[in-house]
Amino acid sequence: MANPIDRSIINISVDCVIFGFDENEIDLKVLLIERGEEPFFGQMALPGDLVNIDENIDESAKRVLRELTGLDDIFLEQLFTFGNITRHPLGRVVTVTYYALIKPSDFDLLPSGFATMAEWRSISEIRELAFDHFKILSTALTRLKGKIRYQPIGFNLLPEKFTLTQLQSLYETILDTDFDKRNFRKKILSMDMLIPLNEKQKGVAHRAARLYKFDMERYDKLQTLGFNFAL
Amino acid sequence: MANPIDRSIINISVDCVIFGFDENEIDLKVLLIERGEEPFFGQMALPGDLVNIDENIDESAKRVLRELTGLDDIFLEQLFTFGNITRHPLGRVVTVTYYALIKPSDFDLLPSGFATMAEWRSISEIRELAFDHFKILSTALTRLKGKIRYQPIGFNLLPEKFTLTQLQSLYETILDTDFDKRNFRKKILSMDMLIPLNEKQKGVAHRAARLYKFDMERYDKLQTLGFNFAL
DNA sequence: TCAAAAGTGTTCTTATTACACCCATGG
DNA sequence: CCATGGGTGTAATAAGAACACTTTTGA
């Protein structure tokens, strides 16, 4: 970590689990940095660092993420706080973790600080991470899968205009399952949250699909009424 | 708080939201202490205190709860971490909060430490609390209501042998709603998690109800298969 | 003309809701 | 004998699951 750990006190840090999903890609990715500093020098880790005394922890998470990876203006949701005595080799560090799901192609990565590298890595290929970050990642993945069934996470992962097949494959990738095409369409359209456009895909070597966009106003209304997005 | 706040560092505390439900009682309660110390001297607050450097935060929550209220051996679940700069008047304190739902009559309250009193208070009557504890309480209540629909919280709130009406009124109280008696029974019995006993209530001035107990083995199995307790 | 994905309905099964009367017990 | 809560079934509706062929497009 960039700030020094004080062995005489409980230090507090934030760590961010940024999931990435791009259309055309088949798997879910996570943003990792390579550490240019001890401990775990040269190993991959979640972006994270100590909280400053004069910043709210939510703001701290945003700052740390920006400083290490260049990602800015991301909606982070709090995940869990990990506080075991032994989780950091240099002292006592309680970490508040956050997660988000974004579209990698919307952002440029710019590693700096003690991050010598910032990269998207496929979830399925990750075997180990610095500290207890692998455990944090697993916790985040479980939460994401649970959450996406009830909340329209994912609206920000598609282009403004998208096809129903794109939407379906987004859900299939994140939930790691398959849906019946007709049933998926029936359900998603019955929610009345998509606006069909008088536009079609162009330049595809097959029948062009109709494009849709999200009806945010309608969605917000349904949310407040306790609407359920389950599939 | 009992330990002194150090203004030069970020202090870390735990706070516990202990919900209480007793049969025969119509409303949901929460365990509060009266503070015998500044700040907020004499005001009601959630039991909470600073974390020691040599204890895990989960263990810290248990210890603090025990020291202030006498409650021991309670399964606490982490709720959320509140870390705004301004949340504590004497310095920077990030608090990790926990919650649980228990049956008050199973425990004796024994206030000590800086708690001059420890009491069960009806949720609906609480207007204000020390620090940001009212907000913490609201967050916990939302979480509890969400959670009880998918998890069998509540098994520990009833006597070992209970009637279906007791179970129903437990759910109705916590979710603040009403269920149709026949539909409730049909659904709960179809889950196959209750064992009907060859025993009846005694001493009631009406037809005696059959008693049931939970089939924990069966429940654990269903849990791992992704079972859903929704009502 | 072929390959590739788009688009479209029906049937069957299962879950959810609404609803009202008789039963057993103790006071 | 009455007040109190216990106990029971059915019909209607809604939601979910399974399933296969025709259409459009560009290469």
Keywords:
alpha+beta, Arc Repressor Mutant, subunit A, two-stranded antiparallel sheet, 231 residues, 7-stranded mixed β-sheet, DNA-binding, homodimer, Nucleoside Triphosphate Pyrophosphohydrolase, 5 helices, 9 strands, 2 domains
Percent helix of chain A, as a range, is: 25-40%
Based on CA atoms alone, the radius of gyration of chain A comes out at: 20 Å
The first-level CATH class of the largest domain in chain A is given as Alpha Beta
Which stretches of chain A are poorly predicted, pLDDT < 50 over at least 5 residues?
none
Helix/strand/pairing category of chain A: alpha+beta
CATH topology of the largest domain in chain A: the name is: Nucleoside Triphosphate Pyrophosphohydrolase
Span between N and C termini of chain A?
41 Å
Order of helices and strands of chain A: EEEEHEEEHHHEEH
Based on Cα principal axes, name the global outline of chain A: elongated
Task: Enumerate how many helices of chain A there are, as a single number.
Answer: 5
* Strand fraction of chain A: 25-35%
Number of strands of chain A: 9
Quaternary class: homodimer
Superfamily at the CATH H level of the largest domain in chain A?
Nucleoside Triphosphate Pyrophosphohydrolase
Quick check: average pLDDT of chain A? 90
**How would you sum up the major sheet of chain A?**
7 strands, mixed
Largest interface (CB < 8 Å): A-B, 23 and 23 residues
CATH architecture of the largest domain in chain A: Alpha-Beta Complex
